[in-house]
């Protein structure tokens, strides 16, 4: 008796796959018809789905119908050109296609031998990026360091923290546990992922020092060095400093070179988080923001934020790869192979926390080859120009003020009527679904954030957003 086969055949996949490509293309053609922020209530999507899994096979037609009717109402449309919230999490058609190929190949590239292309494409593409952005030679695979793709900047920071911990303890903490009183340093504006990493790495939140910032919300190097000296006098062991190029709230840039010089004097690992702003370094005119980057031990940025590469894709460079490998390498018998033992290949599972690895570099390879350096530069410059235009409109208005001078593509502004008014203004606009933006607090005040960097954004979208903001503010003021 012939056994039943439930698998989708290549012919069926070809037919259904073409339909889904059409569905995605239709989605982008109609994306502005959707409310940007999902309008559903908590539990609404879950309640629309069956409580138990289906016993019998269901058709793709039924699945796609439920996708349209049940899933889409619960989607916040990050790819809408009317999305101005948080930082962008962009994608593009070349990235989608590259990711589709990666999914189709189904590679688990934990070591070179399990798919040499997955490793070597990643090495080459990250060397491309280092050259495109004029990064230090030490960040290239042809030197002492190199790059590896992580999932997010959070994981990159944790990876740096753990490697820094091992270097500071002469690689003994992995064996004996932490016996030193290690202390790390960030600014009050540094992303919360570093605090989480401090906890996970076993350093402890009490051993994390928050350094105050100046009027531009940048870390004050004088206070950093003073705190390091104090901790040393108290018998503690300073070991890690994180500088930021584009903080989350206001995209402030820390004084990269001055911090790096302090780290060199004090023998601290220097990690630079350029999660969102990093992409702008493809443009030579923005590279002054990372003056001093050659002093860094590690540096990360997210192509999945502003380089049109879908989530997740974080580039993590180190100046000395041996420090990563010595920290994370474990070689059980089942991973032993001739290529690894030859020492002629990179096994990226030794460069980070996880063992398993997707072929993430393929989508980045597709994106860089499709756009070219010129194409990437063009769109980054256009987004910065649109942000400057928006800033000028705010500055010329009677009731709004620019809170922080925008360095690139984020504009921080507020209405002069106060915190409650600004929160009401933002929530009223977001509830309409016409656009979506978010807020932060700077110096204790509510500040509205307009992040202008969505893949398909045009001047008309920014102009429309400003008109909506002005009109809604007038309506609230009149009521």
Short note summarizing the structure:
The chain is an alpha/beta fold and 479 residues long. It is 43% helix and 13% strand.
What kind of assembly state do the chains in view correspond to? single chain
**Contiguous runs where pLDDT drops below 50 for at least 5 residues:** none
Compute the number of helices: 16
Shape: globular
Compute the gyration radius: what is it?
Answer: 24 Å
The computed structural class is alpha/beta
Distance between the termini: 76 Å
Strand content bin: 5-15%
Give the rounded overall mean pLDDT: 92
Q: Can you summarize the main beta sheet?
A: 7 strands, mixed
- The topology string of helices and strands comes to HHHHHEHHEHEHEHEEHEHHHEEHEEH
Helix content: 40-55%
Number of strands: 11
- Strand order within the widest beta sheet: 1-7-6-5-4-2-3
Description:
The mean pLDDT is 92. The longest helix is centred in the last third of the chain and has 36 residues, at 361-396. The chain has helices at residues 10-30, 44-48, 60-71, 93-105, 116-132, 153-168, 173-176, 192-200, 221-233, 256-266, 303-306, 321-328, 338-342, 361-396, 419-432, 459-478; strands at 146-150, 182-187, 208-211, 237-244, 269-273, 298-301, 314-318, 400-404, 410-415, 438-442, 445-451. A hairpin with a 5-residue loop joins β8 and β9 (410-415). It starts with 9 loop residues before the first helix and ends with a helix. It has a seven-stranded mixed beta sheet, with helices on both faces. Strands 8-9-11-10 form a four-stranded antiparallel beta sheet. With 479 residues, it is an alpha/beta fold. α6 packs across α8 (192-200). The chain is globular. It contains 16 helices and eleven strands. Helices cover 43% and strands 13% of the residues.
């Amino acid at each position: 008796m012939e056994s039943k086969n439930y698998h989708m055949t290549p012919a069926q996949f070809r037919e259904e796959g073409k339909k889904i490509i059409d569905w995605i293309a239709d989605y982008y053609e109609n994306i502005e018809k959707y409310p940007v922020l999902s309008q559903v209530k908590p539990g609404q999507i879950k309640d629309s789905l069956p409580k138990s899994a289906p016993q019998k096979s269901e058709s793709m037609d039924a699945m796609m119908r439920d996708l349209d009717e049940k899933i889409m109402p619960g989607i916040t449309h990050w790819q809408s050109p009317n999305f101005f919230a948080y930082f962008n999490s962009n994608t593009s058609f070349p990235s989608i296609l590259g990711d589709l190929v990666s999914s189709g190949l189904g590679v688990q590239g934990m070591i070179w031998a399990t798919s040499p292309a997955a490793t070597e494409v990643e090495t080459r593409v990250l060397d491309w990026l280092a050259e495109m952005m004029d990064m230090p030679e030490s960040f290239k695979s042809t030197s002492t360091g190199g790059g590896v793709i992580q999932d997010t900047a959070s994981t990159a920071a944790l990876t740096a923290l753990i490697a820094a911990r091992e270097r500071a303890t002469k690689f003994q903490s992995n064996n004996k546990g932490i016996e030193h009183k290690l202390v790390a340093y960030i600014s009050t504006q540094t992303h919360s992922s570093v605090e989480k990493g401090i906890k996970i790495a076993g350093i402890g939140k009490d051993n994390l020092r928050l350094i105050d910032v100046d009027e531009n919300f940048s870390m004050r190097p004088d206070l950093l060095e003073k705190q390091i000296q104090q901790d040393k006098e108290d018998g503690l062991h300073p070991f890690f400093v994180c500088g930021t190029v584009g903080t989350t709230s206001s995209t402030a840039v820390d004084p990269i070179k001055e911090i790096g010089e302090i780290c060199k004097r004090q023998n601290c690992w220097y990690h630079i988080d350029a999660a969102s702003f990093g992409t702008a370094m493809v443009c030579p005119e923005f590279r002054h923001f990372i003056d001093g980057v050659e002093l860094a031990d590690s540096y990360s940025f997210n192509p999945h934020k502003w380089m049109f590469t879908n989530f997740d894709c974080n580039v993590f460079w180190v100046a000395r790869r041996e420090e990563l490998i010595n920290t994370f390498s474990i070689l059980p018998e089942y991973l032993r192979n001739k290529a690894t033992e030859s020492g002629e290949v990179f096994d990226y599972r030794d460069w980070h926390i996880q063992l398993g690895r997707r072929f993430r570099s393929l989508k980045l390879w597709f994106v860089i080859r499709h756009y070219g350096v010129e194409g990437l530069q063009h769109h980054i410059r256009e987004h910065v120009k649109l942000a400057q235009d928006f800033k000028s409109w705010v500055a010329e208005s009677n009731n709004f003020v620019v809170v922080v001078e925008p360095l690139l593509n984020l504009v921080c502004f507020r209405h002069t009527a106060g915190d409650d008014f600004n929160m009401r203004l933002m929530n009223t606009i977001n509830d309409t679904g016409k656009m979506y933006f978010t807020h932060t607090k700077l110096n204790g005040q509510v500040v509205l954030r307009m992040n202008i960097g969505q893949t398909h954004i045009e001047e008309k979208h920014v102009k429309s957003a400003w008109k909506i903001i002005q009109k809604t503010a007038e309506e609230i003021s009149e009521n």
